[in-house]
Amino acid sequence: MSSKPRLHYFNGRGRMETIRWLLAAAGVEFEESFLEKKEDLTKLQKDGSLLFQQVPMVEMDGMKLVQTRAIANYISTKYNLYGKDLKERALIDMYVEGMFDLNDLLMTYEVQPADKKEQHFANMMDKTENRYFPVFEKVLKDHGRDFLVGNQLSRADVQLLEIILMVEEFKPEIFAKFPLLQSFRERLSHIPTIKKFLQPGSQRKPPSDDDVVDKVMKIFYS
Ligand code: P9H
Known about the structure:
- By secondary structure, the chain is an alpha+beta fold.
- The protein is 57% helix and 7% strand.
- The protein contains nine helices and four strands, in the order E-H-E-H-E-E-H-H-H-H-H-H-H.
- It has helices at residues 17-25, 38-46, 68-78, 86-107, 114-143, 155-170, 179-189, 192-197, 210-221, and strands at residues 6-9, 31-34, 57-60, 63-66.
- It has a four-stranded mixed β-sheet with strand order 2-1-3-4, with helices on one face.
- Ligand P9H is lined by residues 14-15, 53-56, 67-68, 107-108, 111, 216, 220.
């Protein structure tokens, strides 16, 4: 039984991508079991591997962890990505919960029905440009350090970089308004563990194309 964490999800971003980012940023190698068909999900549901009959599920340290935020909390605490004290943790939690709310909009765009896509896109870009990015641009300005919280890398930095790169795929011109987010992106991309995860051939997943969306529909909605 290898001691590497084993991630159970489909071969795409969705709710597991943030977990992949946190493990990669912490320099932790992991293995993946991809759900390819509905039976792969029902098998896990039937053998009691999924507390709430849902994935993401991560097998690590003898546990079958479910619920994306719970998994992210465990990994962030174990690998010292959660700040140096309770106050830093409170700041990090506020920032990453905002990021999860934005990421929910970004990650569900691909699986939107055609007639809802345009409205969903307009809303997610409006929230990005007028609610979330102005907050993180100001935090970087006021804090004046390399990282969002304290003076060490935390999960807030990793999850912000994940979101910046996703938004860049949708609307790169948006960053003209956020110069500090741009320099943050550059700076974080040079951290060795993150640089490695950004290399072609890493376990980072590409945006979901129609094949992946079809597979998601078959696994979770048929
Ligand atoms: N609170 C895929 C792409 C983007 C966004 C979501 C789903 C929720 C957590 C089976 N799991 C389509 O909906 C697939 C969750 C976990 C939980 C699942 C069922 C989803 C998706 C697959 N559905 O944060 O972990 O919604 O297992 O029976 O509910 S992910």
